[in-house]
Amino acid sequence: MHDDVTYSPATRLVALGRPTRTPGAPAAPGIELSSTYVLGDGPTYGRFGNRTWSTFEGVLGDLEGGRALAFASGMAAISACLLMTPPRGTVVVPQHVYNGTTSLIDELEADGRLSARRVDPTDTAATIAALDGADTVWLESPTNPMLEVSDLPALLRAARERGVLSIVDNTFNTPLLSRPLELGADVVVHSVTKYLAGHSDVVLGAAVTADDAIHERLHHHRTLRGAIPGPHETWLALRGMRTLHLRVARACANAAELAARLATHDAVAQVRYPGFGAIVCLEPTGGLAAAERIEERVRLWLPATSLGGVESSLERRRRHAGEPESVPEGLVRMSVGVEDVEDLWQDLDAALQP
Ligand SMILES: *Cc1c(COP(=O)(O)O)cnc(C)c1O
User: Fold this and answer.
1) Which residues form a coiled coil (predicted)?
2) CA-based nearest residue to 204, from 29, 68, 15
3) Which of 143, 171, 252, 301 could form a disulfide with 191 if both were Cys (CB 3.0 to 4.6 A apart)?
4) Where does a domain end: 189, 224, 241?
């Protein structure tokens, strides 16, 4: 890649993170498997740094507009970010976010480590009011699994004005649909497990920030607590990211088409779809029993948790104990993949029949 040309994200996904072009150099980066290094300048030990991590981090950081740090999982990154809240500090968090995040905040609250203010993030004024005197604000837009969309620019601006540390879980959007750092967020976190890696074969997380002091704190946390990824995982994630733009475009187009068809389906009471992204939630008219029937009947859709893979999957979210009671019993979260949309529709329509 030439430094003097500004390439689009699609091109950067393909071209960045490749070995230097010298005669005989490989086109693709290798996997560095070493726990230790020869003393002197450069890397020293496998928990402190690894060049396969760095290659992945370089590409993700470029796309989000900051410096990325890979973590062992999305939850490892989320945990590192939440623990930047000072002892007995206050975190503002939407009522519905990824249930691992909710459970972690509940536990930290029960331990007296921090206190939480739960908000409806679609109520911008109430969320901004909750920021007064808070230390950290956690945001997801859309939220998981209710798909509520918040006014991120307004909320992030308000957080910045009040000196509240803002963290955005950008897993559902990827940097192709939203770049929260450009909107004023301090940190973006990802479950790389989902769209970024994209093939349901790796568990990995990342935190991205443009602030050097925050980067240093997160790096320190990762090193000292050992929340490090494996080199294989970061290599697989970068390999998956080469086609992120193609996968996201196809999955989003499929999701828009399916959401439109579901909206007029006799067996569907409600469809949640924010108008972007590839997650669609439906509530069948038959409630819980009908939702369980969908999970049992699908042949092409994978009945499984997780999301963001090339393959379409779905699950009734309330099957998980951590999901709050405000999530309807019959809500089925669908992660729309990149298959032929007619095949997806046929399978779903058959599963929805009374
Ligand atoms: C899956 C998920 C996580 C957790 O990531 P892991 O890689 O499973 O640890 C966090 N946030 C969102 C939005 C997720 O979908």
Assistant:
1) none
2) 68
3) 171
4) 241
